[in-house]
Amino acid sequence: MDIVELVKKRSTCLRRQVGALIVKDKRILATGYNGAPIGCKHCEEVGCVREKLGIPSGQRHEICRAAHAEQNAIVQAAYSGTSVNGSTMYVTTQPCVLCAKMIINAGIRKIVFKGDYPDSLAMELLQEAGVRVVKFEESSEPRVIKD
User: Fold this and answer.
1) Which of 25, 26, 108, 131 fits 126 for a cystine, CB–CB 3.0-4.6 Å?
2) Secondary structure of residue 3 in the 3-state scheme
3) Cα dist. 68→89, 139, 141, 146, 147 in Å?
4) What are phi and psi of 128, to 5 degrees?
5) Maximum Cα–Cα distance for the chain, whole Å?
6) Active-site amino acid positions
7) pLDDT of 143 strictly over 70
8) Which residues lie below 8 Å from residue 107, measured CB to CB, with a gap of 6+?
9) What's the pTM?
């Protein structure tokens, strides 16, 4: 989870920085953070459309310049020809419904997330699809999460 926290610092979102990491067989396959598509201006440069329109967190995902961290990690793996089928995704925030659907269809079998997000449909779909979802809990003791 420390690596995911580092990845999220690359985010260009003005509202929420999110990082994602896909792992299989103890190897990092891909990382992602939320930000504008390649070649497009980031919110840091042009401002936040959602903020300007007063859209609350967790609503109207399509009105945003950024792709989510989970989406970018899956796309990064695809771009390099890396299968994520049977992998685990670590993410700083519980996935939204859009990301949950991509995670399910990409064949990711487990999600370890840190922060909550108000999207019960995402959790319902992940459970229905058999994706194991684990909330990461900080502790003073080193903790190993097995894939």
Assistant:
1) 131
2) helix
3) 13, 27, 31, 25, 23
4) -60, -35
5) 44
6) 70
7) no
8) 83, 84, 85, 86, 87
9) 0.89
